[in-house]
Specification:
Helix 1 crosses helix 2 and helix 3 packs across helix 4. The chain has one domain: Rossmann fold, CATH 3.40.50. By secondary structure, the protein is an alpha/beta fold. A five-stranded parallel β-sheet has the order 3-2-4-5-6, sandwiched between helices. The chain has six helices and seven strands, in the order βαβαβαβαβββαα.
């Protein structure tokens, strides 16, 4: 049975402020856009957009609908060739699978190296992928909790349990 750990709204907002501070402190790299990764990164992207005053775009990798996942990545890669920098944001870097997919798709579409970075509310230090910005770290080798973010907390308990059960390696 998984351990469901709610992330209260005030902790979520605090995490956004941590990410915002890290981005402001990094004077060597400034994004032009925040790209929310659907579903989990959409709400954080809007909050971070307001916190640092940057526009938000989105890609929806979770739905697996090509028109909303791969095609926008081709357009985003083109923007990097025009000199723009993109910060992709998601709720958690768990296995790293989403980040791997996005990095490969962007590279295949010709994204300029160094023009894309990733930020997460929670970074798993055991992930296959490393990221540049995070608010909090965990180690999935130790922490098996299923984190329930404020926007997920409105779902029926059965739906949350179903989402967790879909990736048993993360919570077992």
């Amino acid at each position: 049975m998984p351990i469901f750990t709610p992330i209260p709204q005030h902790e979520f907002v605090a995490a956004i402020h941590i990410l915002a501070a890290k981005l402001v402190e990094d004077t060597a790299w400034n994004p032009d856009y925040i790209i929310g990764i659907g579903r989990g990164g959409l709400v954080p992207a809007v909050f971070l957009s307001h916190a640092i005053g940057l526009p938000t775009l989105s890609v929806d990798y979770s739905s697996q609908v090509k028109d909303f996942a791969d095609e926008p990545l081709v357009k985003l890669a083109a923007r990097t060739r025009e000199g723009e920098r993109l910060l992709f944001l998601d709720d958690i870097n768990d296995s790293g699978r989403t980040i791997t997919h996005l990095r490969r798709a962007l590279a295949a579409a010709g994204a300029v190296e160094g023009s894309v970075r990733f930020a997460m509310l929670i970074d798993n230090v055991s992930s296959a992928e490393r990221i540049e910005y995070w608010a909090r770290t965990i180690d999935r080798a130790v922490t098996k909790d299923w984190f329930v973010f404020p926007w997920e907390a409105v779902a029926p308990d059965a739906a949350i349990a179903e989402d967790a059960a879909a990736v048993p390696e993360r919570i077992a």
